[in-house]
Amino acid sequence: MTTAAKQPGPSIEKKVAFGFALWRGNADLWGLRDDYAEPLFKGWAKPGPIPPGALGGGPAVEAGETLDAISGYFRLFQPAKGHRFSTDDVLTAWYGTMCCPTARSVLDLGSGLGAVGMIAAWRLAGARFVAVEAQTESVRLARKSACWNGLEDRYEIRQGDFRDRSVLRLEEKFDLILGSPPYFPPGSGVEGDHPQKIACRFETRGDIADYCATAAPRLNRGGIFVCVFPVAPSAQRSRVEAAAAAAGLRIIRWRPVTLREPEPPLLGLFCMVAAGDAPPCARGGVWVEPPLVIRTAEGRIHPEYSVVKMSFGFPP
Asked: How far, in Å, are 39, 108, 137, 270 from residue 120 at the CA level?
């Protein structure tokens, strides 16, 4: 899990690799399995619409699957073993919808199980979504989730490689484009044996440069591209900056993410616009926001992150 081709040594790269492997692969990190239509969860009143699945009209949970709460009453079908949604997916949806709160058309690149897009759809009621994902099993589960959440009329899921113009046409334009790309080149860490996990962690179908190159020509005027990517080691942040510049995008703001105090930030949330759309005040530098802290040194959810979670329909 480093930008170099060789195996990382016992350094920060190796620690980052191990942390991300656990973080992105753990099951039910949130503890959000409750009664579908129950209005309260541990004393917290769930916001938002009640989808058809919560009223008994959704697809059934099959063997090898779980149905886990995401935003409000929304649910996500996931494999019981394999890749499952994680904090970086959730933060991408939150940051993107915060940076572009009036989006009417949204593209989710490499959409996986659909966590990023469906959380964004919960926040952007009425917006039209296109999600592109290559893995058959992820597409199958995402379509079940879209049905359960009552999103089928405004949430299109396409199976294929987003770099393929037969899957995603060049003339299609969007107000907001979201991406939670894999972080590491193949061979830079232990890949494991589960195909979903491998594709979500390692750049088997494109890297951050491909995400930027795909997003740039498909932004509406004034559109926003938001992605998440590691900022440690520093070479990873440099990859984002180089990818944006090569695609004709300008990073206008980004927010570091600290998983636990007092550790340095490991992730960054990046907001980009077409270089020609950036206002003059944003052309001379990038606004670096204060770090978003997930957990305190004692292991508790940070107070700010508790409020952030409630803003996208998660219990604090």
From this structure: 21, 10, 21, 16
Query: Residue type for 286, please?
Result: V
CATH topology assigned to domain 86-311: Rossmann fold (3.40.50)
* 267-274 and 249-260 beta bridge pairing: antiparallel
**Alpha carbon of 44 to those of 35, 72, 123, 300: distances in Å?**
13, 10, 18, 17
Q: Tell me the H-state helices in the chain.
A: 12-25, 87-99, 115-123, 136-148, 195-201, 208-215, 234-246, 303-311
pLDDT tens per residue across span 66-102: 999 999 999 999 999 888 898 999 999 999 999 999 9
Tens-digit pLDDT profile for residues 193-238: 555 554 555 556 789 999 999 999 999 999 999 999 999 999 999 9
Largest Cα span, the chain: 55
- The reported pTM is 0.86
Nearest-CA neighbor of 85 among 136, 157, 30?
30
Scanning the structure block, which residue is given the tokens 């990859």? Answer: 239
Q: Supply φ then ψ for residue 86, to 5 degrees.
A: -145, -175
The two three-digit tokens of residue 166, written as one number? 């037969």
Of 122, 78, 84, 128, nearest to 103 by C-alpha is: 128
